[in-house]
Structure formats: structure tokens, C-alpha cells
Amino acid sequence: MISEKIRPHHLERKALLYVRQSSVHQVLHNRESSALQYAMQGRLRALGWSEIEVIDDDLGRSAAGGVQRAGFERMVAEVCLGKVGAVCAREVSRFARNSRDWQQLIEMCRVVDTVLIDQETVYAPRHGNDRLLLGLKGSLNEYELDLLRQRSLSARHEKARRGELVVGAPVGFVKAGDRYEKDPDQRVQQAITLVFDKVQELGSARQALLWFHEHDLDLPAKQSNGDIAWRRPNYASIHRMIENPISGGAYAYGKTAVATGYGAGGVGVKIRRKARAEWLALMPNAHEGYVSWEKSEAIRMMVSNNVPTSRHHGAPKHGDALLAGLIRCRRCGRKLTLRYSGLKHSIPRYSCRRGWMDNGEPRCIAFGGLRVDDAIEDALLGVVGPGAIAAAVAAEQDGGQQRDQVRAALLRDLAAARYTADRTFRQYDATDPANRLVAGELEARWNKALARVAEVESKIAAHDAARPVPAPDPASLAMLATDLKTIWAAPTTDARLKKRIVRTLIQEVVADIDPQVAEISLVVHWIGGVHSEIRLPRRRRGQRNGTSADIIAAVRQLALIANDDLIAGILNRNGLVTGHGNRWTRERVTALRSHHRILVFKAADDGIEPWLNLSKAALLLKIAPKTLRLAAEAGEISAVHPLPDGPWIFSRAALSSPAANAIAGRARHNPKYPTGSHPDQQNLFSSIT
Length: 689
What we know:
Largest sheet: 5 strands, mixed
Oligomer: single chain
Number of helices: 25
Number of strands: 22
Distance between the termini: 128 Å
Strand order of the largest sheet: 2-1-3-4-5
Helix content: 40-55%
């Protein structure tokens, strides 16, 4: 006992025994260490303390400063209150392995005169030599931890550089010593291979995801315990398979780094991805992959290029514009932005606006996209046309292969479901029927497995029932190839497919406007390295999408009897739209009349209109409107009918002609025509209203 450092006032207060181990693995397996720490209670009793409190809240927590330690904070709080005479640990390094916590504890013990005790000696922080020794020990403890970490990381990194460090296997692989091997389950292997095939075929990870959802196919996912579970796929699961170089047969390590962050909740750890050049190890062809390394890299680059950035084209979208993501401004080098206008948002327009939007620079160029897309289509179809027959035959073969892939995946699901049902049946059959607690649960599992088998069988039956359309013969394909432009412009042709064809043949299009000759200059950079220039006359706004001559003629005739509001309603009722595909409004009718100098309808001051509609004309002749309409349809009287679902227009001069009088007289003498009463005839019955 070092009696000169322990005074009576120390013994009057209680002693705290701090017990800590750095990890859960040490707590479970290093039992001797924890036993030695708890045995320090005997040393405290030998030194004279009768009241001893054990603080073991921090078992499994590191003292390096990265995690919060509730036990250590409670110990420091007890010391600050002056209730503790001594704090004890098997080794002083158990208190803290970082300078912040260590100096805080030493300073608080110095202020309230609390001693520190380990298995060797007693330290009094109020003594200068002991305080110096404690400071050195704290620095050595922190340095020792850093040295151990550095040595372990160096050994780990050297093993990773040799390609022998296998920490965890992703889905589709298992650990076999110091290397990866494919999962022996063929269902897992074929499902992951199908993912790569569909991404390469459809051109994007999202389209592959939609394909799996369309056919209701599941993908394997690895659980926390290492088991495989089959789940409905999401975008992240497919993207991880594509981005992971292990799937391509390469060994990779050091893809991520740990960054410490500070927030409202305290210290936090964030994982950031590193660039491929910063990886610690990347060794292609280290093991057998699901695809070759070259194919894996090609698929990964394709998916990366689907991100619409300045360097990449972006994935083909549903819009009709062919050059979205491909066209660049010749003046500033930025990509042209695309926007759609019109009622159905189907009229594209390319403009260089990034400089104005980002930095307030002047706008470069802007032009309509319809004529530009037409020119690119003509140039493209001249290249694609000779291979149209071969492409159609290949498409038919691919369609049959897709159906085979779906059916093969469903058959694998059926085999797995039948195995599960058979296994649950064997478990149910082996149990004692009298033990209903076990038999009831096994019976429910068996029923669930049988229901899964029936569900997969119904999917296969529905898939087989949906028979594909018979493949056309080569002669009909040759006829289609002669009219490839019609097929390209058909509404049923997918816009994304056309864009993929464009991106396969064209690398980039550089655009500019020549203001002197009012032309759009397009320099097409083909994939093969050939450049070609296309010059197009620049149209004025609305020149392409002008209103048809039939609508203009109808408006000219309708303006004789109707105002602009009524004309707009008649045009909309007949399903007619403007040149831009919009519905008609009063303002648009007014603009059309003004542009074509059509006089506005104005009622006559004396009430005698030179032009009458069907109702007013029939009233003037005192006959039924139907009678007059039938006569006009038969050509017995001159009339104008601009639109099928619109009014008849009669001139007052035609209604005063002998032909009109003959029609009215014939209608009055018709036996079916009701004879009206004489105006002087009186009624025998008085009114009761």
C-alpha cells in the first residue's frame, strides 16, 4: 500500500471500478480479461475501501473516441460531484485511449482530489510527478492504439494487394478460402446472368427493372446472415450487380473510404465512394465471373453514360426529339437543352441556354427541332436501309429468345417452389400428428409452399397462352424495307428504339446558325469517324405548322353568320385543331381572321341579315327546318355547309328565289303537313289557367 497518497478523506468516499472491453468479440471470448478486471475489487478492499461501485456499462465499446460511452460519462459526473475517493481500473488505458477523455478525467480528479488506481500503483493527480506520469501514459496509450491500428491496416492492405483478402461475398458468390466462387445454386447463377443480358439488350438498368416487374420475376438478395432470399427487384439491387467488378471476374478492394462527420447528433461516420484510380486493388480475371471483364466494363460504361451530364448523352427517353443529349452548340461548346411545346407537348425546340441560366451570359442559338430531326432521319435511313431485312430477322429471333428467357426463369422458380413444398411435406410427415403445436405450424408451411407452386404454375400457363404473332416471311420483310421511312414514322414505333439507333450510328451533332443566309448548319459526327455537314433553311415561327386551307375556308364561311366564340366552338366540335395541335379559342380564331383578312361578323342595323342559318331561314319560309335541310341536301336550293357537324348557311337572295317558294308551297300542300286554324276562329272551351 502506498499509504502517503491515500488519506482518510479518500477512504470516506466511495471507490469506482471501471470495467471495459473494446469489442463485443472480446466480451464473448476474452473471459479472462473481464475476470481480472472484476478482481480489482479485492485490491480496493485491501487499500481500505469498503464502498465499491462497479461501472461496466461500456463493455463492447472502444475508448478511441469514436463512440459515446455512457459509463465513462457517469464516472466523470460522479467525480465532479466530489463523491468519489478513487477511480480504479486494471490498466489506466481502460479509462481512455484519446487525449480529450483522458485529460478531462485527470483534471477533474485533480480538482476534487481523487486518486487513480491500477494493478501496479496509485496516482495522485495533485502531485506534479504523478500528473506528469499520467500525461505520458495517456499519450502512450493513444500512440499504442494508433500503432496497432496502423500495423493491422498495413497487413490487411498487403493481403488485399495480393488479392487474397476476401471479407464478404456479394450475391451470386461464396467465399472459398481467399478467393470468390460462384454460388452453386444454378437458379441464382442464371438469374444474375439474365440481369446482365437484359441490361445490355434494353440499354439501361431501369428498363431492365421494368422488364423484370412486367414478367413478375424475382431476383436473389443476400440477407445479413448470409442466406439467399428471393425478392421483387429494385433499381439499387440491379445497379449493384452491374457496378460490382466481382461480377465480371475481377478482384477489387478499397472502393470506399470512411469519413468522419459532425452533426446535430454528434460524431457520425459516412461512407464515400472513391474513384477507380484510388482503389487499393483491382485485378481483372481473378476468378470466374458471370460475364467477361470486357463485357462487364462495356455494360457499366453504358449505364454510366445514361446519366445526362455534359460528358454523357443520357439514356434515351420517351420524347420524340431524336437528338436529345447528342446536339452541341458550336459557339460555346455546351449541350443544347430541349423543351417541348404545343397542346400535347410534342413539338421539340433546341436552344443553348445553359450559359444564360448559369452565368447570365447572352443566349447563343435556338431553333425548332422538327426540320432538324427530319434531316437527321433522312441521313440515318439512308445508312440503315440496306440492313433493314437483317435487322428485322434478328429482331424476330431476339423476340423468341426473350420468351425463352422468361419461360426458363419461371421454370427455375417452379423447381425451387416444388423443392420447398417437398421439404415441408417431409417435415410434416415426420412429426407426431398428436403434437398439434408442431404439426399445425408445419401444415401451414406446407400449404403456403403448395400455394406458391400453384402460383408459379399459373404464371407459366399464362405465359404459354400468350402466343406470339407469327413471324413474317422474308418476302414481306423485303417489301417493308422498301418503305422503311413509313415504318420509322409510324405511331407504333417506339421513340426510345429510334433514339438507340441514332446513338448507335451518331456520336454527336454540332449545330450553328448562319444569320447571313438564315440557315441551320449541322455537322454530324458519325461513329466510324466520318463527318458530314447538313444545311437547312431556317423557317419562320409557325411556318411549318400552319393552319390547313380547309379550316381557313370554313372560318371564312362561318364568319358570315357567327362570331369568333361560336366559330371556335364549331371547330372544336368537329375535332379540328390549330397548326400546333391546340384547341381553338376566341383569341386564336381572331388571330386567324386578322392574318387572312377575314371580316368579322356584324349584325345588320335594320335586322335584315344577308346570310341566315337553318333555323332562321326555315322561319322566314315558314316551314320546318328538317324540310329545308333535306331540300338543301338534295340540291333544290343553294346553301353552304362548311363542316359536317356545323350550321347550314343560306343567302337571303336564295330564300327569295322561285325554287325556295316552290319548296315552301309543296310543304304546305303536303297531306302530312298539319293544317293550322283560322285566326278568326273562336274556341268553344274557356281557358282554365
